[in-house]
Amino acid sequence: MDFLEEEIEFTPGPVTEYLHEALDPDAVERLAQILRTAASPVIVVGTEVARYGAIAALERLSDLVDASVLGEIKGADLAFPNTNPRYVGKLTASSPALEGADVVVLLGAELTEGLAMPLPDFGDSLVVQVTVDPLALRRQYAGQVGILSHPGRLLDAVADRLAEGGAVPVSSGGRVRGLRERWEAGREALRSRLLGEADGAVSAAHIADLIHRLGGSETIVVNQCGSAEGFIDTLVDYGAPWTYFGLSGKASAQGWGAPAAVGIQMARPDRRVIAVLGDGGFMFNSTAIHTAAAYDVPVVYLVLDNGGWRDVATVTGAMGSSLGEPGAEDAMRWTFRPPIDHASYARSLGLKSWRASNPEELESAFAAAFAEDGPTLIQVASAMGDVRVFGQAFA
Ligand SMILES: Cc1ncc(C[n+]2csc(CCOP(=O)(O)OP(=O)(O)O)c2C)c(N)n1
Ligand SMILES: [Mg+2]
Question: Which ligand has an atom closest to residue 276 CA?
Fold first, then answer.
């Protein structure tokens, strides 16, 4: 069966679309009305929120309407700080925040790209989609209301409208607090599971614990590390805008991280960039580190050495493919033979480098890397437990 050719039954429900380029007062009024009367609204935020500078507007509005906030499963930007008590996790088909939600606002968010399959079921919730992109409106999900708008201007206007009507900020109590506690407990459980399976090697949980402890809370994370990506974006605290850049699920473009980190570091000389890269993804574009050396751009590169491409076989194997069988990765040449000495390679391109075979060595190499003025690379012995825990999510 070719799923691209398969015919499906699809009857879109009635939709009201507000498609004006300028802020449409009807759209403002309608969204204000919907949110004013919502008992348990959920806002799903996507990368557009960061790119259009709408994070502060969203924080204000979500306070006014006591909303919980979910992030995209593989967002490219930090669309909402995960330190905000309204953040309750990523959107998945089984996000607890969707249970009992009467209104779901999809705010510049992608649903089907990345790993959010199957599509979440929004049940009887009223679904409002807001985006700047006419092609994205209703492409993935029909919803009942579609608004083509700049997110920041719309959210500010809606918040003003609600404030005029006497709305006062609501503390994140009750439902939102319960969801937040559940997310925090899940995050803690993930951390202990990863640490428990690390077997003396370095897990994403160790890295997550070190990033801000050694680098400070404004350190910028560039996240492109295959199977550990979802751990780095979940376990690290991101409080400030522009402190997180991830590999968009839209393409999963391997090779993006090493050069992206150079550009981001050049744009933000006041902050330090840490690029957390999988050894496989790194090999797609590893020569970019020479640019960092040539221009003295002080990125700290962490290359997670687990011997090759692990996520592809792990995901497909968990779904029942023979690629999960022992030896299949080697047969596909997805493991690196001969093994790669990334640290020596980096040194040959002008970077200071270290190898870290356990969490203690990582901590001292990390501290040494931060003390350098130029680019550095740490080749990290990455725990296979991370890959196993990653695979369990697809079983
Ligand atoms: C340009 C490109 N080629 C191939 C792929 C398929 N792909 C996805 S992840 C991956 C390997 C990632 O390996 P690594 O960075 O070592 O992470 P690990 O799976 O070991 O955790 C590949 C080849 C892709 N997403 N993009
Ligand atoms: Mg790898």
Answer: 1
* Sheet strands (E) in the chain: 16-18, 41-45, 68-71, 87-90, 103-107, 126-131, 145-148, 220-224, 244-246, 273-278, 300-305, 352-356, 376-381
Q: Give me the pLDDT at residue 117, please.
A: 64
Average pLDDT of the residues in 158-164: 94
Per CATH, which fold does 197-394 belong to? Rossmann fold (3.40.50)
State if residue 226 touches ligand 1 by the CB under 6 angstroms criterion: yes
| Close Cβ partners of 261 (under 8 Å, ≥ 6 residues apart) | 222, 273, 275, 288, 292, 299, 301
C-alpha dihedral, 123 to 125 to 131 to 135, nearest 10°:
40
pLDDT at 4: 73
Mean pLDDT of the chain: 92
Residue 382 Cα to ligand 2 middle (Å)? 8
| Protein residue whose Cα sits closest to atom 23 of ligand 1 | 309
How does pLDDT run across 230-289, given as a tens digit for each residue? Answer: 999 999 999 988 999 998 877 789 999 999 999 999 999 999 999 999 999 999 999 999
Going from the Cα of 33 to the center of ligand 2, the distance in angstroms, rounded, reads 49
Q: What residues does each domain of the chain span?
A: 16-179, 197-394
* Ligand 1 atom nearest to 277, measured from its CA: 15
Question: Residue 110: pLDDT above 90?
Answer: no
Same fold, 16-179 and 197-394: yes
- Looking at domain 16-179, does it have CATH number 3.30.365.10? no
Q: How far is the CA of 252 from the centre of ligand 1 (A)?
A: 8
Distance CA 132, CA 154 (A): 11
The tens digit of pLDDT for each residue in 45-90 reads 999 999 999 999 999 999 999 999 999 888 899 999 999 999 999 9
Separation of 226 CA from ligand 2 center, angstroms? Answer: 7
- Measured distance CA(113)–CA(173) in Å, rounded: 32
Length of the chain: 395
Give the integer Cα–Cα distance in Å for 233 and 244. 8
Tell whether pTM > 0.90: yes
Ligand 1 neighbourhood includes 280 CB (under 6 angstroms): yes
